[in-house]
Design a protein that fits this description.
heterodimer, A: 305 residues, mainly alpha, MetI-like fold, globular, B: 355 residues, Rossmann fold, OB fold (Dihydrolipoamide Acetyltransferase, E2P), 2 domains
Chain lengths: 305, 355
C-alpha cells in the first residue's frame, strides 16, 4: 500500500476517536493538572505557584484538615466495599451457580436491579427508610421487638459514613456478583466432576478448584471498586448534600473537590485549589492502580479451558 | 481390580427415561466398551457407575460391594474425561496427586505413586508443567495418570480420544490397550467410534435409546448382529439393507431380485424381511453358483488397494460394495453383484435376526 494511502486511512479510521478522546479526556486532564500549578489572585489573574498549592493543601491546617479527613473517610468507604460488597458478591455468585437453584434468573435480576436505578432515587428512598420520624426501619425493628437497636444512623457522626457506605454496597453488589457469576459459568462442569471423583465436596471444590480460577476476576472487581470509590460523589451529595454532614463525617474526596472547586454556601469557589485536589485524586488512584498492576496482576494467571 | 455388576438400572429425568433396565456385567480385568449414537445413554450409564449421576432404580455393585449410596470418591473408581478436566492452576504432579491429598494419603506415598504413574506414562520430564503448557496427547496422559495413582478398582473412560487428532488417536488407542494389559485393569469405556470399540473391547455393549441392543465379543457383533440396529451400527461403511418378501425356497427383493436360499422355518412365505449384507461380502462380477443381483454403478470411491462402489440395484434400492484392485469400473456401468451366501443376514419384520 502506498504511503500516502496508508496515512489517509490511518487518519480516516483513527482520527475521530483521537479527536474525541483528546478533546474530552486528555485536554481536561492536562488543563486540570496545569491549573493546579497556578494560584488565583483576588483580581482574577493567575500566577504561577509551582507546587505551592500542594504545599498549602497538605500543610495549611485550613486545607489539610478537611483533606486528610476526606482521604481517611474515602479509605473507610473503600474498605467497607472491599470487605462487604465483594465478599457478598462472591457468595451470591456462588449461590447463583448452584445447579439445584430454581428461579435463578429472577434472583439475578432482582439483585442487579438497584444498580440500574438512579443514585438520587436510591439516596432518597434510603433516607425515607432510615428516617427516625417516619422511617420504616424503626417500625420494622420494633415489630420484632428489636426497637432498642434503632438509632438515627444517618444523623450520627460515628455511624453516618458506615451507613452511607452500606447503602452504596446494597446498590452495587450486583456488579461483582454478575462479573464473578460469569467467570464461574466459564468453568467447565467436567472439572467439578473430576474434583468430585477426587473426593471433594461442593464447598471444597469451590475453595480448591473454582476460587483459584476466578482470582483474575476478583482482582478486576477489586480494582474497579477502588477506582469507583475514589471517584465517588453522587450518593453522598444526594443524601448528605455538599457539606457531607454531620460535621463532615461523610466527606470524601469527591465532595471535598466539589465544595472547593465550585464553592458552597459561604465558601467561594477556588478553581486552582479544586484542580489541586482533583490532581491529588488522580495521583491516589494512579498509585492504587499501579500497585495492583505491578504487585498483584502480574502474579495472577488467567486460564483458558 | 474388581468385577462390576449392574442390575435393572433405571434413570429418568422427569418423564424421560434415559436408561431402561440396564443389565451388564464387567468381568474382573475386562475391557467393556459402550457404544451407540449420541443421546443413547452411554455416557449417562458411565456417570451412574461413577456416582456422578443419581439413578432412579436398580443396583450397581463394584467388587461385591453395593455402591448405589456411596459418593464417587468412595466407590474406588477413577474417571478419565473427554476434555481431560485437568486443574489448570496446578502442575502435572499436583494434578495427579490431588485426590490422594484429599484422601489424607501421606506425602511420601503420594510422591511415590505419582512418580510410578509418571514413569509408566513417560510423564517424568513434565511433572512441573502446567496443563496449558502440554499438548493434547500429553494432557490425555496426565488425565490417565491421575486415574492410575488412585489405584482404583475400575477405570471409567468417557470418550477419552475424541479431542485428539487422528494420528494421535491411533497412538493413544494402542497405549490404552497396552496399559490395560499392564495394569490388568477393569475398564469401562464410552465411545461413539466403532473402530475404538472393535479394537479395544473384550466386550462391546451397543446402546440405543437407553437400552442395551446387544452385548458380546466384537467379532460376534460383527458376524452375528442380533438386530437391524446393531447390524447397521457396527461396520463401516454400514451394512446394506435390502427389503424383501419370503417366497417358496428363497426371498424376493423385487424386479430381477429372486434369490434362492435356505431360510429358517419361522420365515413362512409372505413374511416381510430385510436382507442384510456387508460391502465386504459382495463381489462385483458374475460368479457361478452365487446369488446375484443386477446393478448400475452410481459412483466409485477408490482408497488405494480397496475402494467402494455405490450401486443402484435393479430392484430399486441402493447398495455399497467393496472393490479390490484395479477394476476399471466407471459410473454408469451395468454390472452384476454377487452375494456371499455365508454372510447373508435376514431380519424379521420386528428388526430381529431370524437367520
Amino acid at each position: 500500500m502506498a504511503r500516502g494511502t496508508y496515512l489517509r486511512l490511518l487518519v480516516f479510521f483513527l482520527g475521530p476517536a483521537v479527536l474525541v478522546y483528546s478533546l474530552f479526556s486528555i485536554y481536561p486532564l492536562l488543563a486540570t493538572i496545569l491549573n493546579s500549578f497556578y494560584s488565583r489572585e483576588a483580581d482574577g489573574s493567575s500566577l504561577w505557584a509551582g507546587l505551592g498549592n500542594f504545599h498549602t493543601l497538605l500543610t495549611d491546617p485550613t486545607w489539610s484538615g478537611p483533606f486528610w479527613n476526606a482521604l481517611r473517610n474515602n479509605f473507610v468507604f473503600f474498605l467497607i466495599h472491599m470487605c462487604v460488597q465483594n465478599p457478598i458478591g462472591l457468595l451470591l455468585a456462588a449461590l447463583l451457580s448452584l445447579k439445584q437453584l430454581r428461579f435463578r434468573s429472577a434472583y439475578r435480576t432482582l439483585i442487579f436491579m438497584p444498580t440500574m436505578l438512579s443514585v438520587v432515587v436510591i439516596g432518597f428512598s434510603w433516607q425515607l427508610i432510615l428516617s427516625p420520624l417516619w422511617g420504616i426501619a424503626k417500625m420494622f425493628l420494633a415489630f420484632f421487638g428489636l426497637g432498642f437497636l434503632f438509632a438515627p444512623w444517618l444523623g450520627v457522626e460515628s455511624s453516618a459514613l458506615i451507613t452511607v457506605s452500606l447503602i452504596s454496597v446494597w446498590q452495587f453488589v450486583g456488579i461483582p456478583m454478575i462479573l464473578i457469576y460469569t467467570a464461574l459459568l466459564a468453568i467447565p462442569d467436567e472439572l467439578i466432576d473430576a474434583a468430585t471423583v477426587d473426593g471433594l465436596n461442593q464447598f471444597q471444590a469451590f475453595v480448591w478448584v473454582k476460587l483459584p480460577l476466578i482470582w483474575p476476576t476478583i482482582g478486576l472487581v477489586s480494582i474497579l471498586t477502588f477506582v469507583n470509590n475514589f471517584n465517588a460523589f453522587d450518593l453522598i451529595y444526594a443524601m448528605k448534600g455538599a457539606l457531607a454532614g454531620p460535621n463532615f463525617s461523610t466527606d470524601i474526596m469527591g465532595t471535598l473537590f466539589y465544595r472547593t472547586f465550585f464553592g458552597n454556601q459561604l465558601q467561594l469557589g477556588n478553581p486552582s485549589m479544586g484542580s489541586t485536589i482533583a490532581t491529588m485524586m488522580l495521583i491516589i488512584i494512579l498509585i492504587g492502580v499501579m500497585a495492583y498492576l505491578f504487585l498483584v496482576q502480574r502474579r495472577i494467571q488467567r486460564y483458558s479451558f | 481390580m474388581a468385577e462390576v455388576v449392574i442390575e435393572n438400572l433405571k434413570k429418568s429425568f422427569g418423564a424421560v427415561e434415559v436408561l431402561k433396565d440396564i443389565d451388564l456385567t464387567v468381568e474382573d480385568g475386562g475391557f467393556v466398551v459402550l457404544v451407540g449414537p449420541s443421546g443413547c445413554g452411554k455416557s449417562t450409564l458411565l456417570r451412574a457407575v461413577a456416582g456422578l449421576e443419581p439413578v432412579s432404580g436398580g443396583t450397581i455393585t463394584i467388587g461385591g460391594r453395593k455402591v448405589n449410596d456411596l459418593a464417587p470418591a468412595q466407590r474406588e473408581i477413577a474417571m478419565v474425561f473427554q476434555s481431560y478436566a485437568l486443574y489448570p492452576h496446578m502442575d502435572v504432579a499436583a494434578n495427579m496427586g490431588f485426590g490422594l491429598k484429599f484422601a489424607g494419603t501421606p506425602k511420601a506415598e503420594i510422591a511415590a505413586r505419582v512418580g510410578e504413574a509418571a514413569r509408566i506414562l513417560q510423564l517424568e520430564p513434565l511433572l512441573k508443567r502446567r496443563p496449558r503448557e502440554l499438548s493434547g496427547g500429553q494432557r490425555q496422559r496426565v488425565a490417565i495418570g491421575r486415574a492410575i495413582v488412585r489405584k482404583p478398582q475400575v477405570f471409567l473412560f468417557d470418550e477419552p480420544l475424541s479431542n485428539l487428532d487422528a494420528a494421535l488417536r491411533i497412538n493413544t488407542r494402542v497405549e490404552i490397550a497396552k496399559l490395560h494389559k499392564l495394569l490388568a485393569a477393569t475398564i469401562v469405556y464410552v465411545t461413539h467410534d466403532q473402530v475404538e470399540a472393535m479394537t479395544l473391547a473384550d466386550k462391546i455393549v451397543v446402546m440405543n435409546q437407553g437400552r442395551i441392543e446387544q452385548q458380546g465379543k466384537p467379532l460376534d457383533l460383527y458376524y452375528r448382529p442380533a438386530n437391524l440396529f446393531v447390524a447397521g451400527f457396527i461396520g463401516s461403511p454400514a451394512m446394506n439393507f435390502l427389503p424383501g418378501v419370503v417366497v417358496e425356497g428363497g426371498i424376493d427383493l423385487g424386479e430381477n431380485g429372486r434369490l434362492s436360499m435356505a431360510l429358517p422355518a419361522a420365515a413362512s412365505p409372505g413374511t416381510r424381511i430385510t436382507l442384510g449384507i456387508r460391502p465386504e461380502h459382495m463381489r462385483i462380477a458374475e460368479t457361478a453358483g452365487l446369488p446375484s443381483l443386477p446393478a448400475t454403478v452410481d459412483l466409485v470411491e477408490r482408497l488405494g488397494e480397496t475402494g467402494f462402489a455405490h450401486l443402484r440395484l435393479a430392484t430399486g434400492g441402493m447398495a455399497i460394495a467393496e472393490i479390490r484392485g484395479e477394476t476399471g469400473l466407471r459410473t454408469g456401468d451395468k454390472t452384476v453383484l454377487a452375494l456371499d451366501p455365508a454372510h447373508l443376514h435376514v431380519f424379521g419384520p420386528d428388526g430381529r435376526r431370524i437367520g
